[in-house]
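Collaborator request, handled under Task 6.
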Amino acid sequence: MAEHRGVVFPLDAASGRRSTAAVGRAVVADALRSVDPVGAASATRETNWRQGYLEHFRRLVEAGLPSAAAAHTIAREGLISVHARMRWTGPSGEAALAAAVEEPVTPLGSETFRGEGAPDRTISLPYAAERASGYRLRRVLAGWVERGVVEPSCAEAVELVMANPDWLDLSDQTIVVLGAAAEMGPLRSLLRWGADVVAVDLPRKDLWHRLIGDTRRLSGSMTVPVQPGSGPVESRLGGDLVHDLASVTQWVTSQEGPLVLGNYVYADGATNVRVATAVDVLTQRAVAERGRDEVSLAFLATPTDVFAVPGGAVARSVENYAQRHTSKVLRVPLRTLSGGRLMRRNYVPGEDPGINDSVVLQQGPNYLLAKRLQRWRATAHRADGGLVSLNVAPPTRTRSVVKNRALAAAYAGAHRFGVEVFEPGTANTLMAILLVHDLRVGAPAREHPWQDEADAAVHGGLWTSAYDPRSVLGIAALLGLAAAR
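Structure tokens returned to the collaborator:
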């Protein structure tokens, strides 16, 4: 079966099962052990990982705050643990993960599709039923900053790109978009600006038919891997990272020019960890073969995670808590009746940095481990001197979110608590602009990795909201359902 081939979770000999919980618990413990042995022991003893994982992922952030060295150690030990524990199952049976890129492969071919339009050199953003540019876009950015929807550094980064429209000419870069069809990915923006994109996604004919149509209407080009065999090229496009990792890795690393590896992959459940691990194996091999100066990395961090946030965001949240006049009447009785679980403060006043915990329990530990793996790789690559673009993306009404009725309802009511949920077109265009900024400015490493992650964050107001996001999630969902009716 496909779920037992390719990049897989290890098989437990005693139970005969591939336990995702056992791997998640062990990886978190391994990451913490050198820096926080008490936290590592606590993770190891967690008997209900699917419900109790939240505090341990929070500890991964808290334990790294005392020094950059501590944060670097957690990231590197976490990466080592994932690579040591995850396995590869190929024609020769189950083996260490490193074997995934050592097997002999039949090389993939390439097909390039070219757009017919002219490159767009205008920085614009679809927002509120119009495409904002120039003065209007600056007003949008100022409004987001004023409402605490984005960090001020986000607006500054976008304005810098607006002042340098020639930066949109990315002909000096080979941008690899892993997860080309992802709603949050930058593919369409890059093609609109005339970039030559290397695109990787699953070999699904309908997926590529849609992307080829988009490419034809725009101005850039899209180079796609082609599976060996006969028949029309359109039916052989794509590459499977989880099950055909060696072929895809070889094909990606053979592309010409300085590589920008953009990681936009996503899958449901345990498969998300498998595909995230596969991308990390590819990334390691690309850096080893091409050198860190020739390989830049790009990621989108989810806002529903744990982050250290600047003192300015904490102060804004504290101010919002004091001014939430409409909720003061309900705050005390709800907190009393819930035993303090509802409508909690987002932070202790004066924290700098503060800890924002916006994890949504329904997303599960596999989702969080996959996203943490990306953050760890970003931290390690940046510490080694490589260029990294990692930006916190906003809460967005993507298909993967709205198909979950509880999350869709919570997003519908989120504005009642100062959180703005973005439409996919707004979110992916904004994140593509920030990618251009980072590639051109260089995104230099700051004093501590948490500052790198917080820079230019588009958190949608989760960081500046008066309340701990999870303490009002249920209320937001009820309000969202009521509004829908």
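The cover message to the collaborator said: "Residues 2-104 form one domain. The chain has a mean pLDDT of 92. Please let us know whether this matches your experimental observations."
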